[in-house]
Amino acid sequence: MGKNEAGHLKRSRTVAPCGQPPPEICISSTGQWIRFAKRSSKKVAGLVAKNRGHREGDTTMNALKSLILGFLAGVIAAATVQEAISWLFVHYWTGWDAEPWSLRPMPSLLMPQLVLPWLVGSAITAGLWGALFGLILGWKPIGMMTIRGAILGLFGPGLIGAFIVVPHLAHLPSPLLQANVSEIVPILCISAGFGAVTAWLYGLFSWGRTP
């Protein structure tokens, strides 16, 4: 075999046909791409986990803010509008004798040993309802807040609280079952007014909305 033929055979062993790189280079490049893909997938997985953690943290903080702002809104609404509506019914309605802004000591229905002024106990209960409203309305309130709040007030403090829970805990008949219109109408109006103002204040506190 001549020198030219030997050189040609040597080059044919190192250069693949059709202009393709040798198998050794292909295998090396493939390994590099696999390592690059693994590193990239790890980075992406880390970023996804980090973003998920941020989202979970933001959700927790938003829920906590909703509870706090809703509680404050409920307390303010109870100490102002709720008692003002009650005052109107005391003076311009027959059969409603609740004393507005009363500071008379009253035992708690859940903890009888805890005695608080009626207005303070009512404000705390209203704050708890307001905190629940905050979670329902969401951190970024949308829609007509006063209407949504009035509906929540009717079903929450009104139908569930005043007509079911309170009579059950106090061992008293429900005004709704007795069809006592002189109490049903004031309770529904007070509950709707409380809910509307609580939702309005919550929208103002949480997002600067004044619907």
Description:
It is built from 5 helices and 2 strands, in the order H-H-E-E-H-H-H. The protein has a two-stranded antiparallel sheet. Mean pLDDT is 81; it is low at 6-18. A hairpin with a 7-residue loop joins strand 1 and strand 2. The protein starts with a helix and ends with a helix. With 211 residues, it is an all-alpha fold. It has helices at residues 3-14, 23-92, 118-137, 145-170, 181-207, and strands spanning 105-107, 115-117.
What profile does the largest beta sheet have?
2 strands, antiparallel
Instruction: Give helix % range.
Output: over 70%
Whole-angstrom Rg: 35 Å
Low-pLDDT ranges: 6-18
From the spread of the alpha carbons, the general shape counts as: elongated
Give the class from helix and strand content and strand pairing: mainly alpha
What is the strand arrangement across the widest sheet? 1-2
Mean pLDDT: 81
Classify the beta-strand content into a percent band: under 5%
What is the string of SSEs from the N terminus onward?
A: HHEEHHH
Oligomeric description of these chains: single chain
Q: Separation of termini?
A: 97 Å
Care to count the β-strands?
Answer: 2
Distinct helical segment count: 5
